[in-house]
Prior knowledge:
The protein has helices spanning 3-25, 28-43, 54-84, 90-112, 115-126, 131-138, 142-162. By secondary structure, it is mostly helical.
Amino acid sequence: MTRKDVESLFKTHYKQMYHLALTLLFDEAESKDVVSDVFVSLLGGSTVMRTDKAKAFLMMSVRHRCMNVLQHKQVKERFARLLAEDEDTLVRDNIVEEQMQMEELMRYVRDNLSPMEQNVFRLRYLREMTCQEVAEALNVSRQTVHTHLKQSVEKIRKYFNSNSKAI
């Protein structure tokens, strides 16, 4: 798919895609991120789409990405609830294990990612900034942020999959 094709799809479908994301997420910045991520994946060439079903594909992509965002929020909320429970329960063991995994993750990030990848990763996932906010904070393009995030996540996933450890 060419850049012009993606631009045309953007101009035609952005408003509807954004409205769907906003309806599901109730967050303007996250909704914009979700829609932008769909178009970035089209530009990256990793996504193949039939042009005769473009609208349905784009709307379904937004829906799936929104569901992933919502699932991530649920996990964070569950984690917060676990922290609030009694320390003498089995929950404490789970928290300790997750904390150890987080420490291992951060050690891997520090030792194996480039300085730019580390900055992007920390701002996006630890400070929970949007991709646009990260781009502005680092004075780089949003595409650069996406590229570094993708590379970082691939490296991390490869490392932890090869070591049979789940995060």
